[in-house]
Write a structure and sequence with these properties.
CATH topology of the largest domain: Dna Topoisomerase Vi A Subunit, Chain: A, domain 2
Low-confidence stretches: none
Strand order of the largest sheet: 4-3-5-6
Radius of gyration: 22 Å
Number of domains: 2
CATH class of the largest domain: Alpha Beta
CATH architecture of the largest domain: 3-Layer(aba) Sandwich
Oligomer: single chain
Helix content: 40-55%
Structural class: alpha/beta
Number of strands: 6
Length: about 210
């Protein structure tokens, strides 16, 4: 029991506290806020959460979240259908789309290969990706997975399975962020920055 005032309040606090990053105190504050809100606003909030689970589905092509069988990105006629960017989850699509620099299509794996966590190739949408590469006219596959051991393992697995069918397989650049000092950069990132070095004139002109 978190409080001795109401079992309904306790129940609400306990459910809210199940959300990631929210402790009991924050959950109590949120529950009390909802309690003070107009009933119409609270019902609108409840309906939005309910619809989040019952109405949202996954795109049959790229596995992005969608309100229909085919997501809005896959439906856009101006997208470059010859390029697929492979990402771990939906949050990566949101991040890339916010840059407004990518015009191709996506493929959401739903995770990365991690034997320690019991996640193998069969738990991901890899077969769906391989089918797209085989059946569609794909010129480039961009591997935009985390710069971790698990991410690299997944990259190698994908590369091994599609290298004979795709003209170009690339990974997003990995290196030192603008404003970072070399002395505070870890060895792996620094090493990759050296291996992925770019032409100065090209790099400098883009920043000016």
């Amino acid at each position: 029991m978190f409080s001795s005032y109401s079992q309904y309040l306790d129940n609400a606090v306990n459910e809210i506290a199940k959300l990631p990053g929210i402790g009991k105190r924050t959950a109590l504050r949120l529950a009390l806020h909802l309690l003070k809100e107009d009933e119409v606003n609270v019902q609108s909030f409840v309906d939005a959460i309910a619809n989040l689970k019952s109405k949202i589905c996954y795109c049959k092509i790229c596995h992005n979240i969608s309100d229909t069988d085919i997501c809005t990105i896959c439906q856009q006629p101006k997208r470059d259908t010859t390029t697929i960017c492979v990402v771990q989850d939906i949050r990566d699509i949101i991040a890339i789309e916010n840059t407004a620099q990518f015009t191709g299509l996506y493929h959401v794996l739903g995770g990365i290969i991690s034997p320690v966590d019991g996640i193998g190739p069969n738990q991901l949408t890899l077969e769906s990706l391989f089918k797209r590469v085989k059946e569609e006219h794909i010129n480039e596959v961009i591997l935009a997975l985390p710069a971790t051991v698990e991410g690299d393992t997944t990259n190698f697995y994908i590369h091994k399975n599609i290298k004979e069918q795709v003209k170009t397989i690339t990974t997003i650049a990995r290196g030192i962020g603008i404003g970072e000092e070399l002395e505070f950069t870890d060895e792996v990132t620094l090493g990759r920055s050296l291996l992925s070095r770019t032409d100065f004139d090209t790099s400098y002109s883009r920043r000016m």
